[in-house]
């Protein structure tokens, strides 16, 4: 039972399970039918949704094609922009190349212009240098001509001074004797002024007609002296001319040397100028090359910077294009998501409408459908949120790209500016260093040129000093030679003067013994014929009581007295031109005036004889008698003028004597005279009464033939006669000194000139 009950229970359980199973199957079938229906609806909805989705995808495809077309258009635009940028780069490169070519052409033109200008300047400087050299040489030549003119003028002055000195010497000697130049006038003169002076003197001589016998020896002596003087003058003129020619020769050498020095200095200056110009040109060329290299570096740097800027610009454009592409893709994506969201929102509305129609659906199905719609909407919302997040990320990326691009641009610009400044600083430093090196090279060249110029000037100075020293030595040798020649000439003339002096002493002794015309005739070896004198003045003198004096005195005292007295008388006679001592016998002293003259100036010689007598008395009154036996000495003097005959007697010891009544009358005048008085005849009185004061003798003096003569006592000179006597005495003393020392004076004068 139990078994059965168990079996019944099992069977009842199985039946219940079957019923449950069948119920379950029915429910499942219902559910399956409902599911199938639902599935059918779902399939229909899915198919409809598929149609809408297909339509949506078709729209999306069309939109994508449009976006692709838009992207292609944008790509084409970017390609066009890239090509435009490349073209711009090419154009800028061409423009830079053209600018570089233009710049090079301009620099070439500038260099050509500079070279042309430098050539023109060099030619101008060369022309100016040549003109300057010509002007300097002309100035030098003009200065040399001026110096030569000055030297010639000075030499002419020296010759003129020498001629004037010679003329003064001739004039001075001519005043001593105006007739000594007759022989010289027959010679040829080199000195025209001397010739003119002598000619004038000869005319004056002819006008006065001065020619006395007492001047014949002086004429010959002066003729010889004048011949010596002429030789010295000619020698001095020749030596002066030689010195002047030597000076001109030296001046010519100095001028030639100075011109050579100027030429050398000008050539050196021209060479140095050429060296400076060449160095300057080389430095300019080097500077231009350095500037060109710097300019090329700058151009390269600028091209690199421009290329970098273009690359940066291209990168910016590419970045911009990428950002635009991303932005466009983002816009497309957002638009697609918005459409998808709108599509799903529309689907949700459809579902809501379907749920409203199917209110009888079970909660499970409704729940299942709500879950599905909610999941789809959530998926759509998540997709939209993801899209918005992606858009935000893309926007941030674009912003970051732009910021990075701008920052890169700023950094690039800063780097370019810094590099450009550094490059400019380096270029400036190189140019300054090059300019300093050029300045140092130019200064070194100029220093070398100055040193060379200084050395050349020193050499020229040494050469000029050597030339001047050589010229000085030559001038000294010439002066020594002239001195030797002049010494020889002076020695020869001194020998001639000594011979002449010896001859003059012999002549003076001879002229003291005989009258001049007699002595000259005897020297010439001719016979001396007796000579008639138209009028001569004879003086006789003797010492009063000379016999008593000799008796009281020793012979030595008498000799000393007579020597002292006659020496004083002889010195007085030297002051007169034609007063001759004929004889001295004991205390008798006889002089005659007018023996040596051929003119008819009887009054002159009578005045000289009377004046000589007056001075004899003065000399006797002042004669030193301290060594004599008596304190005073007295003398009688008698003078008479008239015709007489003179001649020479004897050969071994010739004696000149005067003969005639007038000689005896003169002796008578002395005999009838008084101590220390001058007794003058009437004929002499008539000749000299205008020059002297006389006292008429009261008694007449008897003469031979029973006749008586009026005579006069000499009282003294008249005032005019005293003055004339003083001047004449000085002239006579000067004449004697000139006659005795003319040779030595001429030598000193010639040596001085």
Automatic annotation (TrEMBL):
It is found in: Membrane. One of its GO terms (cellular component) is plasma membrane. Residues 537-670 form the Guanylate cyclase domain. One of its GO terms (biological process) is receptor guanylyl cyclase signaling pathway. Residues 223-307 form a coiled coil. The keyword Membrane applies. This is Guanylate cyclase domain-containing protein.
């Amino acid at each position: 039972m139990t078994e059965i009950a168990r079996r019944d229970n099992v069977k009842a359980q199985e039946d219940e399970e079957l019923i449950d199973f069948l119920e379950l199957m029915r429910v499942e079938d219902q559910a399956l039918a409902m599911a199938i229906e639902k599935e059918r609806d779902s399939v229909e909805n899915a198919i409809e949704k598929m149609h809408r989705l297909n339509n949506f995808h078709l729209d999306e495809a069309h939109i994508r094609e449009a976006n692709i077309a838009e992207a292609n258009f944008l790509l084409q635009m970017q390609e066009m922009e890239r090509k435009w940028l490349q073209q711009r780069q090419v154009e800028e490169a061409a423009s830079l190349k053209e600018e570089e070519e233009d710049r090079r052409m301009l620099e070439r033109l500038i260099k050509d212009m500079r070279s042309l200008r430098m050539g023109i300047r060099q030619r101008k400087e060369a022309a100016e240098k040549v003109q300057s050299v010509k002007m300097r040489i002309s100035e030098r030549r003009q200065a040399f001509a001026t110096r030569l003119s000055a030297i010639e003028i000075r030499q002419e002055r020296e010759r003129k001074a020498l001629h004037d000195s010679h003329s003064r010497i001739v004039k001075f000697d001519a005043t001593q004797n105006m007739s000594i130049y007759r022989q010289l006038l027959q010679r040829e003169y080199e000195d025209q002024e001397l010739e003119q002076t002598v000619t004038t003197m000869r005319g004056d001589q002819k006008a006065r007609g001065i020619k006395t016998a007492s001047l014949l020896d002086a004429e010959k002596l002066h003729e010889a002296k004048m011949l010596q003087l002429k030789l010295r003058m000619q020698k001095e003129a020749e030596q002066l001319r030689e010195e002047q020619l030597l000076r001109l020769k030296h001046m010519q050498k100095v001028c030639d040397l100075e011109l050579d020095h100027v030429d050398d200095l000008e050539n050196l200056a021209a060479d140095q100028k050429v060296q400076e110009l060449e160095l300057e040109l080389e430095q300019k060329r080097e500077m231009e090359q350095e500037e060109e290299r710097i300019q090329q570096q700058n151009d390269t740097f600028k091209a690199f910077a421009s290329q970098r800027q273009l690359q940066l610009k291209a990168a910016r454009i590419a970045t911009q294009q990428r950002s635009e592409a991303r932005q466009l893709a983002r816009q497309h994506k957002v638009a697609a998501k918005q459409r998808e969201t709108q599509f799903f929102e529309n689907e949700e509305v459809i579902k809501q409408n379907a749920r409203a129609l199917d209110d009888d659906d079970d909660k499970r199905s409704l729940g299942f459908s709500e879950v599905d719609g909610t999941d789809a909407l959530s998926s759509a919302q998540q997709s939209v949120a993801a899209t918005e997040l992606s858009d935000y990320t893309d926007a941030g990326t674009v912003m970051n790209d732009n910021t990075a691009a701008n920052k890169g641009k700023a950094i690039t610009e800063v780097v370019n500016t810094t590099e450009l400044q550094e490059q400019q600083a380096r270029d400036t430093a190189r140019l300054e260093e090059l300019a300093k090196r050029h300045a140092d090279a130019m200064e070194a060249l100029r220093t070398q040129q100055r040193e060379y110029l200084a050395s050349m000037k020193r050499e020229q100075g040494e050469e000029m000093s050597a030339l001047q020293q050589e010229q000085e030595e030559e001038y000294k040798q010439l002066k020594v030679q002239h001195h030797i020649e002049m010494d020889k000439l002076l020695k020869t003339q001194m020998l001639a003067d000594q011979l002449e002096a010896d001859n003059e002493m012999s002549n003076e002794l001879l002229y003291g013994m005989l009258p001049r015309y007699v002595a000259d005739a005897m020297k010439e070896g001719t016979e001396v014929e007796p000579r008639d004198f138209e009028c001569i003045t004879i003086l006789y003198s003797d010492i009063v009581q000379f016999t008593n004096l000799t008796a009281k005195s020793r012979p030595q005292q008498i000799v000393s007295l007579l020597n002292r007295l006659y020496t004083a008388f002889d010195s007085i006679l030297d002051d007169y031109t034609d007063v001759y001592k004929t004889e001295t016998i004991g205390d008798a002293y006889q002089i005659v005036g007018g023996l040596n003259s051929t003119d008819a100036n009887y009054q002159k010689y009578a005045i000289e004889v009377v004046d000589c007598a007056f001075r004899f008395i003065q000399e006797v009154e002042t004669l030193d008698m301290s060594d004599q036996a008596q304190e005073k000495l007295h003398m009688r003097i008698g003078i008479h003028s008239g015709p007489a005959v003179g001649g020479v007697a004897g050969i071994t010891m010739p004696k000149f004597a005067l003969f005639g009544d007038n000689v005896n009358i003169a002796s008578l005048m002395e005999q009838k005279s008084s101590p220390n008085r001058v007794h003058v005849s009437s004929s002499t009185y008539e000749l000299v009464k205008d020059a002297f004061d006389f006292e008429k003798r009261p008694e007449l003096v008897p003469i031979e033939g029973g006749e008586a003569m009026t005579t006069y006592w000499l009282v003294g000179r008249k005032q005019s006669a005293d003055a004339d006597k003083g001047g004449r005495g000085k002239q006579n003393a000067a004449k004697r000194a000139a006659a005795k020392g003319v040779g030595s004076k001429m030598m000193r004068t010639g040596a001085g000139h």
